[in-house]
Amino acid sequence: MAPSQDPLYAGLGQAVRMATDLLAALIVGGGLGWACDTYLFDSTPWGMIGGLVLGLVAGMRNAYRSAQRWPKT
């Protein structure tokens, strides 16, 4: 399917992609932190908190990089 030429839908698609990237990074970071707490260390809840923070940072970085690639008009 060809990309939409309507700027509203193009911008909406970009916003949904950035939100999905951020959510995925939070889920992966939180999951890895939880796994570290549960199976590797006895540091509950600090591993999950650290994983969520790292996931947030990674998601924000990905969103920023995605926004930089968006063409300026």
How would you characterize this protein structure?
By secondary structure, the protein is mainly α. It has a domain at 23-69. Helix content is 79%, strand content 0%. It contains 2 helices and no strands. The chain is elongated, with a radius of gyration of 16 Å. It starts with 6 loop residues before the first helix and ends with a helix. The mean pLDDT is 86.
| Average residue-wise pLDDT | 86
Main β-sheet description: none
Percentage of helical residues? over 70%
The DSSP helix count reads 2
How many strand units?
A: 0
Structural class of the helices, strands and pairings? mainly alpha
> What is the helix/strand order?
HH
Give the N-to-C terminal Cα separation: 24 Å
* Shape label: elongated
Q: Rg to the nearest angstrom? A: 16 Å
List unreliable stretches of 5+ residues.
Answer: none
Strand content: under 5%
Task: Report a brief summary of the structure.
By secondary structure, the protein is mainly alpha-helical. The chain has two helices and no strands.
Fold blueprint:
Elements: H1 7-40, H2 46-69
Helix pairs in contact: 1-2
From the structure above, extract its key features:
79% helix, single chain, 73 residues, elongated, mainly alpha
